Amino acid sequence: MSAKKSWVKLGNGEMQTVFPGSFDPWHAGHVGMAQYVEDKYGQGPFYELSINNVDKTQVQRYSARIRTLPFCFLEKLIISQAATFVEKARLYGGVQFITGVDTIARIGNSRYYGDEKENAAGSDEQRDAALQELSDRGCRFIVFGREMSTDFQTGAEDVKIYMELQQLKLPPLLQQMCEGVPQSDFRYDRSSRDLR
Hints:
Blueprint: H1 5-11, E1 17-21, H2 28-41, E2 46-50, H3 61-68, E3 77-80, H4 85-92, E4 96-100, H5 101-107, H6 124-136, E5 140-144, E6 146-148, E7 161-163, H7 172-177, E8 178-181, H8 192-195
Parallel strand pairs: 1-2, 1-4, 2-3, 4-5, 5-8
Antiparallel strand pairs: 6-7
């Protein structure tokens, strides 16, 4: 395989860290999370801007260009169309993903595993099959706490609480793939939505 060294590593399945996000906008919280991971694991993450997202509208070309500007000097930006973590795992292999507690809660929620075209809700069996594939591929999740409403919405107007990984009831297999970051190590209470 011929490519930049960092791409060859990612493509060869060497453990790397991928930080998926909409980055709308990229802010100090993202920088701090990436720095925490680099300090702990000795390498910074690849940032991934996915044009497609399970809960959001497709990122338009102009918006994608604007969102990529802060990453121009990092040389570790992936632009993909992988909306789900299973799709990401098929592209990147056994990587560890940086996520917020809101995202990991959605990964554990069976409603996200249905047929989107049919507008059908997912089942526990579909979710469990997806989680098994993530586990079989060697994926892991570094999970940061978030300030959010009780229905896992960041930037919501209602009363917010700070949630951490250990407060969630996740499927056991997903729980095994997760490592929570305690708020004593890192906490940032603003979301991209707050900054827009």
